[in-house]
Amino acid sequence: MTVTRPSALTLLPLYLTVTLTVLFAALALPVTHADRGAIRILETRQQVNFPDGVRLTLTAESDADIVEVKVYFRAVSSGIWSYAYADFEAGSRVVATISIPESETVYLPPGVDVEYYYRIRDARGAVLNTERAAMEYLDDRFDWRRVSIGPLELLYHNLDDGRVAGAARDISKDLGRVSDLLQLQPRGGFKGVIYNSYADANAVFPVQSQTTTSRGTFAGYAFPEQGVFVGQGLDRRIIVHESAHLLFRDALGEKALDTPAWLDEGFATYNEPNVQIRSSRSLYDRTPPLRAMNSLSGTPETIPLFYYKSASVVAYLIEEHGQDNFRRFLGELRRGRVIDDALLDVYGFGVNGLDDRWAGLSAQSAPFPSQQLRDEPSPFVFLDVWVLAGVALVSVAAVGFRFVYTRLRRNSGDNYNDPADWDDS
After folding, report:
1. Ramachandran angles phi, psi of 415, nearest 5°
2. Residue 116 φ/ψ region, left for φ over 0, alpha for ψ in the -120 to 50 degree band, beta for the rest
3. Helix or strand (DSSP H, E) at 64
């Protein structure tokens, strides 16, 4: 038997494959250590101080003075890391502490899973990234129970389990309906945290105006980037509405731009169980143009109208133009298209055109013909123009007649050599 030794050229692809495999494996490691021996972790602690955030404590030592401790953190469902610097006194052995979030202006919703790790650097330039850790940020005033409803993990307290199970069956059907409309297979689960009273829920809601707080304008908030919503009561409508926000954002994916509030809130409201869709006739004169509804604003009296119109416009897109076109529209948004371009490509009109067609102001869609097209002026405008033109012509004719009469009179006997004849005084 003759054995042929492979040449270096023959083995080159194998060398490259092994090298690239090792390189990619190294890059994929979640933790990198510049010098494991130089920096040592002695202890880590985490403490939930609801509603003031999470307090993290790290004890570490090194052969040289530790000069920097940085904490990277994010919601587990988010792809965006934030970081902050821990407080400590430089030395070979340090106890570093930090609170997440550092600022009161940064809101951390209850129920969110927080992931974090430390990056430690000493005076010699050695760097250590610790292993990632995760914790659930939850209101410790209550004993929370959990129930799974499809992709939703619902957290509740002090409620009868049988009542919750009955509500869960109905909510499961509702979420299935929303997923069917989106033709979505959720990438992962999300959480809902419900409080039994408005006072308890309001204590953890994001900061609102005094008026909306006192009126109880909002009963739930969704946080798509954190994969959680917070709501008041075992209310099927609220739970489905806030879940629809999270499913909608999941369907759009990471490339999508921020969607206007009329589309986001309209989709969530449209999918509420037993929702009543208001007609454009009842809303047109009481609501702002769609172009002005990119963000949710208003008073406790006008905010419900914002929701009514948003749901009515989304219903128009789905029910007048079909679910398939609506899915195509969302597909364009998923690619990162701006709202006007996505509408034009699928429906043939932009935001202004959608507003007109929804309101019945377009020849293609006019459910109540008493309204005029926005870009067609009233017949009374033309009448006013003719009247003004007539008055102007009469005035010009009068001035012209006076001028001709004066010239003829002067030519008949005036002495042009007398300066007084040209003195207007």
Report:
1. -100, 105
2. beta
3. strand 54-75
